[in-house]
DNA sequence: GTTTGTGAATAGTTTCACAGCA
DNA sequence: TGCTGTGAAACTATTCACAAAC
């Protein structure tokens, strides 16, 4: 195995592989070949082998991958081997849905803190998480929380981002429909839900493009 | 201008440009250069010019792009020049949030139909949309609905997808955390919310990768 | 002078095909 | 024999730099 930088596209696929491996593993399967894994999750086997080769060398020729090892190695690369905590900002419709979203558990990421600006929500508890006043956003640095989930209206997104960065957040999952500015060393991933829906019609058949 | 196939990555960025252009246009601005647009939305100017060059030729050297023209051309390419209708399946927490999601309006896409399996929800109205019985999913082909939004649990996703395809849906925005199988001619875009969050820790600083 | 549109150069990603290990 | 790991080839996308248009 050679020490390559791991391509971003590979990093993007790792959670997919991890989910598939966990699924098989929990079903009692001990090992799987790249082909079996690929068929399960809908990619090509060589893609999986190539991706694994960047941090590599835990497959056995003639056999496949030991799933426990696979899960451990991929988790470690993604830093999901230690439990990650996230703070949610914006407990509106989307934020509320995220608070109860079951999928985060699989990856060992938990929303442990929530903030909103609405006095009607502040002080209440949702999905076991106390909703705090956004004006008092802070102290996350001392609580080992380094991930933020941004589910506020566009107009507030940059301001809230700045507050998150000040209190030590180093990774932000952003649902506001625009790029947010962050200093070097802070990573943002923007999910533009409406933008994804908006490009779907392009691919509709007929109409002669 | 030459007739290139438009790269997928360009198609992905078009809704971003469209949103920026609409924003400026509504603020009373008549035209903008690639640099102005780029600064607004956080990309590089040459990227915008290159992207536009694929379906091209509506900028004026020395001046920039007329925003009305830009909006019209990009909308046409994305097929957002005619109002698009979407059906939502799964009115849980996430589905409910999507029903009230204001961003879809900007692109002229509307959720006009919703389905669920829960008898407690069927027959009720949410955000002005009647929730119908998922068992009766059909007839969308006669209602000019060709987009589907899938917000059901993973276990139901393939089955529901098949039903959607049978009733004429040709584009699916999938929130279930796995690839869904569709026949040729049907496009799916999967948004794996948890998977995006799961790759965020990889980019956290420190830890010596 | 300013800004577009685009070939050419560079960078990044996917796919192939096969040597080598179990 | 079956499957991994990986160079090399093919493909796709980004970035540059500049001639032409206004």
Q: In summary, what is this structure?
A:
The structure is a homodimer of 209-residue chains. Chain A is an alpha/beta fold and 209 residues long.
Written description of the protein model:
The structure is a homodimer. Chain A is α/β, with parallel strands linked by helices and about 210 residues long. The first copy, chain A, contains 8 helices and 10 strands. Chain A has a 7-stranded mixed β-sheet, sandwiched between helices. The first copy, chain A, has a 3-stranded antiparallel β-sheet with strand order 1-3-2. In chain A, a hairpin with a 3-residue loop joins strand 2 and strand 3. In chain A, helix 1 runs antiparallel to helix 4. The first copy, chain A, is globular and about 60 Å long. Chain A starts with 7 loop residues before the first helix and ends in a 10-residue tail after the last helix. At the A-B interface, helix 1, helix 5, helix 6, strand 9 and helix 8 of A face helix 1, helix 5, helix 6, strand 9 and helix 8 of B. Chain A binds a DNA duplex (22 and 22 nucleotides) through helix 1, helix 3 and strand 2.
